[in-house]
Amino acid sequence: MPLLVSRGARPVRAWLALPLAAVAVGALSACAAPAAEPAPGPVEVRLMVKLTRPSDDRAGIAAEVSRVAGVPASYRSLVSANWHALSLRCADPSACDAAIDRLRQARASFEAVELDGRKRGAVM
Fold it and tell me: Residue 103 is part of a domain; what is its CATH number?
């Protein structure tokens, strides 16, 4: 439905449409802007450890992994008497890498340490 305005009032209609156009341009430019790379945050790494001595003490295994790794560990599942699945929660990926290195160096407790999946954002 056209607005009936005198010829001199048409610039007013253009001024009224200007804010809408500015919003549309701003919205389109926001979509076209490159997404900022997410800042590194807490990650969770799932891993498998092979104990030097068989055990089924879930709490004890998680406590030993936490102590050696230097980060919180959660017990996930029993695979066998020697193999256990756990997860580590770290401040960032490099902290998890260092924790895994510490576990691999603790040959008195762990025969093997293998990654079980990929690093993911932690839910805290």
Answer: 3.30.70.920
